[in-house]
Design goal:
Blueprint lengths: L1 H15 L6 E3 L8 E6 L4 E5 L13 E5 L6 E7 L4 E4 L2 E6 L11 E3 L6 E2 L4 E3 L2 E7 L5 E4 L6 H14 L3 E8 L5 E8 L8 E6 L7 H13 L4 H9 L1 E5 L4 H6 L22 H15 L3 E8 L8 E5 L8 H16 L13 E3 L11 H8 L5 E6 L9 H22 L7
Parallel strand pairs: 3-5, 15-16, 15-17, 17-20, 18-19
Antiparallel strand pairs: 1-4, 2-3, 4-12, 5-11, 6-7, 8-9, 8-12, 10-11, 13-14, 14-16, 18-20
Amino acid sequence: MKHVALLAFALWLVATAPAAELRVSTDFEGGSARVESIDQAARVIRFMPGGDPRRGWPCWWYLRVDGVGKDERVTLDLAGSDRPTRNNGQDTGKPLAASWAMPARATFSTDSKAWQHTAPGRREGARIFYEVTGTGGPLWVAWGPPFTPRDTDALLAEAEKLSPSAKSFELARTRADRPVRGLRVGEATTKKPPGIWVQARQHAWESGSCWVARGFTEWLVSDDAEAKWLRHHAEVFIVPIMDVDNAASGNGGKEAAPRDHNRDWDDNPVYPEVAAAQQRLKAMVKEDRLAVFLDLHNPGPGDPTFFYILENQLLKEPMIAERDRFIALAYGRISKIKPLIPMSNRPKTTGANYHPLWRNISANWVCMNGNPDTVSLCLETLWNYEHSTTDGYRAVGRQLGRATADYLRGRASAVPRP
């Protein structure tokens, strides 16, 4: 009886013990948030995205929460940034629309490696509320699944282990002296194989694009028959993060001053990594072998997956026909992903009415500087959806890789299917 009483007393002590203090930190790679207040009694953290608007749209947020007990529920109360932002290369004097910072479901992890969605958030006026249940250790919560330069390092190292044809390289050093790293994959025996260039994250807040690039990379170095075929018949370059500085520092990147990475493709780039990419692409063009250029992004909050293309009147054949054939193949592959990743088969166009610096957009620059039959596209993969997860993004990347192999086989029709 005495033991029962002691046990009951111990359980009472646990039940009545004060909850640990909630603590929020962002002092890690990619971390970013402005904490407004923490209600320790109600277990509510009120915050908004961090980041310097001069370094891009302040819609990205990523924080660590300590002090959450096992099975304890905490509420993340998010508002949009109140800082004036830039658009179309100019200061607007107004905050960014809050919807850019408010996914229907936030992303969280208990180990900062495996990421999953929260339940749908509850929108009330200008704020949204996400609930997360603790496991007794730290919680990492973010706008979307984070992918940092360290994740690039891990991805490239794993690819090199899986395939002897995969070799990492340093594209450039950023303005803050960080390495921009990529992967070359190729087993072609011909002297000048078709060149494929895949890059992601020119806008640092668009983390989902990195996971699409990861899916493409993992597929490319796999034992899949189509991946083996592509490795044997092409030279493929993949750069998982272009805007490394902002991805590392937790800034948004898009519409950064004086211009962002995807508005920097002219004869005098601001960013060393853009200049280095241009040099490599020009070398392939000079050898008449730049077959495909793919720039990976995430779109607006309500957009499905789709391609951006340059207006037809600005292009010449055979570029238009080859581009449209690639889009049809990619749509056929991506639209069949299960569970569904909604994709539009009607691309959106860029041109003079799209942005003052439309000529400096990477896919447009490649169209205007590539070979006559180069396919140059921007793929926008939706982020505000129940299947916009790491698995969903990687599935898009795999299918994009298969579509690239489909396209190249048609381009070199004498080569049999695997």
